[in-house]
Structures
1.
Amino acid sequence: AVLLLKTYHEIAEPIALLRKVREAMRSGARLGVIDKNGIGSDHGLNAAVVIREAKEAGFSLVEQHDFVKGDGMDYFLIFRAAAL
């Protein structure tokens, strides 16, 4: 499993990075992304963008949570690596 914690929004080429991560993982392995929604002036990235980019890189969303912090601003996405 791989966990990207509060860093995804800083990645310059996220799809390229996720493809490299996918190549290193077994089929069915999990990828977790915890980050901030980035609504308004908040520094972060909308979860929908991460989901779209992960799908393009060969992952499927299996779980989505917003319980990371009480303010609901952080999300926890769990993806499964597709077969290559």
2.
Amino acid sequence: ALCRERGFQPPLLEEAPQTLGMDEKRFSSLLKGMRETGKMAIVSGFLLSFEIEEKLLELLIKEKEGITLARVRDLTNSSRKFILPLLEYIDAKGYTRRAGEVRVLLPSKLPRRRETV
């Protein structure tokens, strides 16, 4: 819920337990389970939910010619601080390829549920 509320301005990993009102041990257990099931990732110290990753990929699918960091930032009402690590994360997963300032989606690399039709 916390990640969904924050959208493209994900919470810091270190702040999450206190924000959620959980002790460290309980939070660590919850996070471990969410990471193992692919519902959550840690990206540059931020918590990234599967839903936000999906929304980012949906944005990229709509931008057929590719998209710049600035355009993603503007479309998500976020900031470079948050968007750059998210874009680098999907680059590392092989979903996009960076060509100068533009990131181009590689549909053949997407898991089946994310393929464009």
